[in-house]
C-alpha cells in the first residue's frame, strides 16, 4: 500500500497527553486482541469444523487485516479520538447515523469489558477454590470494574503500562501452551492427521460450518480497531500506526493458528468440542501431572483483566472524542486538569458497565454470557462494513499531511466479507445474538431521541459543522 504525498504533518493540538510510542502501541494492540477469546473459543470452533479449527482463525485474520487497511487510511488521515463514528460523520454528516455508530462501538466495548469483569470474578473464585454465591461473585466483579475505572482515571501512561504487564502474562500463557504442544507433537504423542480433518455438524455444509466458526473466531481477532481511539494520545500517529497495527495483527494470528493446531493434534475433537477450558485439557493431555489446571484460572484472570481495561479505555476515549465533535453532549468532553484524562466519560462508561455486570452476573444459567462474544462480533462487523465503505466516500476529502492509502479494491473486499459474516443466512449465527443487538440498538435510538429533544428545548440543537477543527455542540 502507498502513502499519499503531501507536506509534512504537524501533530494536531490535543488536550490529552501524547504518551504512547510504537512499543506501547504494539503491546496495546496485541493485548487488546489476545484475551478470553482464544482461551475459551477453541473448543467451540472445533465443534463447527472439526480438526481444521485453525482455518476459521486464519479466515478471521484475513477479514480483520483487510478492514485494518481501511482503518489505517482513516486514522492516519484524521488522527483524532472517536474512531468509526468520527469517520462516518465526516463521510455522511448525518448526526443520527454518527450517534448510532458511536453507540454501537461503545456498547460493544462496554459489553465486552463487563463480560470480562464477570469472568475475572469467576476465575478468581475458581483459582482460590472459594465456595461463594452469586452475590459474592457480583461484588468481586463490581470491585474489579471500579479498580479499572481508577486506573483509567489516573492516566493513559499508567493504564498502558498496566496493559504491558497484563499482555506479557497472557502472552506467556499462550506461548506455554504452544511449547507444550510442540513437545508432545515432537515426542509422537499427537495425531497430526486431525489437523486437516473436516468434521461439520450434520445440518451444515462445509461453507456454512466455516462461516459459523469464523463468526465465533472473529471475536478473538477484534481489538485492533480500539487503538484508533487512542490517536490523540499517540506520538506521531500518522507515521507509526500502519506498521504497528499490521505487526500486531500478524503476531496474534500466528499465535492463534499455532494454538489451534496444537489443540486439535493433541486432543480428540470430541473432547474439545464444547469444552469450556480447552487449553487446560490440551496441556493436561500433553503433559499429564503438570499443575496447569491450577495456573490457568489465574492466567485467565490477567487475560480478561487486560480486555476489560483496554475496552473501558476505548469506550471513554470514544465518548470524549465524539463530544468534541458535537455528536454527544459536550459535558462528556471534560478533561481533568491534573490527570489530563476524560473523567466524565470514564465515569459514564463505568456506570453503564456496572449495570451490565449486574445483569450478567445474576444470569445464573450463563446463556447471555455465552452470547456476549458473538453479539460483540456481530456489532463490530456491522460497523466494519460501514467503515470500509466510508473510506471510499472520504477519498474526495483531502488533508494537508501524508497519510496511508488502502487502495480501491481492499475496502470493497472488506465491506463484502464483513457483511457476509453479519447476515443470518450466511454467518450461521443463532437468533439470540440478533435479539441482543436489537435491544442495544433500540436503547441507542431512545437515547438519541431524548438527547435531540433536550437540545431542541434549550435551543442548542444546531447542526454539526463539517470542519473537523470547528465542530460545535
Automatic annotation (TrEMBL):
GO molecular-function terms, A-Z: transmembrane transporter activity
Protein localization: Cell membrane
Organism superkingdom: Bacteria
Gene Ontology CC annotation, any one: plasma membrane
Entry keyword annotation includes Membrane: yes
Matches recorded under InterPro entries: AA/rel_permease1 (IPR002293), APC_superfamily (IPR050367)
Transmembrane segment boundaries: 24-42, 54-75, 96-120, 132-153, 160-185, 205-224, 244-269, 295-320, 341-362, 368-394, 406-423, 435-454
Principal cellular location given in the protein's record: membrane
Membrane topology: Multi-pass membrane protein
Pfam family membership, one: AA_permease_2
Keywords: Cell membrane, Membrane, Transmembrane, Transmembrane helix
Record's signal peptide: none
Residue ranges of coiled coil: none
UniProt cross-references to PANTHER family, sorted A to Z: AMINO ACID TRANSPORTER-RELATED (PTHR42770), INNER MEMBRANE TRANSPORT PROTEIN YBAT (PTHR42770:SF11)
Protein name, per record: Amino acid permease
Amino acid at each position: 500500500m502507498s502513502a499519499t504525498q503531501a507536506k509534512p504533518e504537524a501533530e494536531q493540538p490535543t488536550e490529552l497527553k501524547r504518551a504512547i510510542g510504537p512499543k506501547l502501541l504494539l503491546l496495546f494492540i496485541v493485548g487488546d486482541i489476545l484475551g478470553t477469546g482464544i482461551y475459551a473459543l477453541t473448543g467451540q470452533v472445533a465443534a463447527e469444523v472439526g480438526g481444521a479449527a485453525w482455518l476459521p482463525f486464519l479466515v478471521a485474520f484475513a477479514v480483520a487485516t483487510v478492514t485494518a487497511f481501511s482503518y489505517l487510511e482513516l486514522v492516519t488521515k484524521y488522527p483524532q479520538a472517536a474512531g468509526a463514528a468520527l469517520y462516518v460523520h465526516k463521510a455522511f454528516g448525518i448526526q443520527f447515523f454518527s450517534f448510532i455508530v458511536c453507540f454501537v462501538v461503545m456498547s460493544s466495548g462496554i459489553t465486552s469489558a463487563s463480560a470480562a469483569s464477570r469472568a475475572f470474578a469467576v476465575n478468581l473464585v475458581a483459582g482460590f477454590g472459594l465456595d461463594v454465591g452469586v452475590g459474592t461473585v457480583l461484588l468481586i466483579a463490581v470491585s474489579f470494574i471500579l479498580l479499572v475505572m481508577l486506573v483509567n482515571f489516573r492516566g493513559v501512561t499508567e493504564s498502558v503500562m498496566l496493559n504491558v504487564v497484563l499482555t506479557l502474562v497472557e502472552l506467556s500463557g499462550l506461548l506455554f501452551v504452544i511449547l507444550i504442544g510442540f513437545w508432545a507433537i515432537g515426542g509422537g504423542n499427537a495425531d497430526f492427521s486431525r489437523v486437516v480433518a473436516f468434521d461439520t455438524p450434520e445440518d451444515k455444509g462445509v461453507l456454512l460450518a466455516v462461516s459459523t466458526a469464523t463468526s465465533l473466531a472473529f471475536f478473538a481477532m477484534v481489538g485492533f480497531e480500539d487503538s484508533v481511539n487512542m490517536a490523540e494520545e499517540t506520538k506521531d500517529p500518522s507515521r507509526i500506526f500502519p506498521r504497528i497495527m499490521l505487526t500486531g495483527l500478524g503476531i496474534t494470528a500466528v499465535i492463534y493458528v499455532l494454538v489451534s493446531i496444537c489443540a486439535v493434534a493433541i486432543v480428540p475433537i470430541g473432547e474439545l468440542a464444547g469444552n469450556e477450558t480447552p487449553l487446560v485439557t490440551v496441556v493436561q493431555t500433553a503433559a499429564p501431572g503438570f499443575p496447569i489446571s491450577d495456573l490457568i484460572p489465574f492466567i485467565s484472570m490477567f487475560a480478561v483483566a487486560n480486555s476489560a481495561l483496554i475496552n473501558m479505555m476505548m469506550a471513554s476515549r470514544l465518548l470524549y472524542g465524539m463530544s468534541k465533535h458535537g455528536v454527544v453532549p459536550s459535558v462528556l468532553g471534560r478533561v481533568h486538569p491534573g490527570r489530563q484524562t476524560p473523567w466524565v466519560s470514564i465515569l459514564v462508561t463505568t456506570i453503564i458497565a456496572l449495570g451490565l455486570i449486574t445483569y450478567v452476573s445474576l444470569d445464573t444459567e450463563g446463556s447471555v454470557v455465552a452470547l456476549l462474544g458473538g453479539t460483540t462480533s456481530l456489532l463490530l462487523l456491522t460497523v466494519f462494513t460501514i467503515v470500509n465503505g466510508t473510506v471510499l466516500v472520504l477519498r474526495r476529502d483531502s488533508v494537508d499531511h501524508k497519510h496511508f492509502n488502502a487502495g480501491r479494491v481492499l475496502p470493497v473486499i472488506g465491506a463484502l466479507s464483513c457483511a457476509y459474516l453479519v447476515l443470518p443466512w450466511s454467518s450461521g449465527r443463532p437468533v439470540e445474538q440478533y435479539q441482543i443487538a436489537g435491544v442495544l440498538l433500540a436503547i441507542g435510538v431512545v437515547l438519541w431521541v431524548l438527547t435531540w429533544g433536550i437540545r431542541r428545548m434549550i435551543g442548542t440543537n444546531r447542526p454539526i459543522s463539517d470542519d473537523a477543527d470547528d465542530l460545535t455542540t
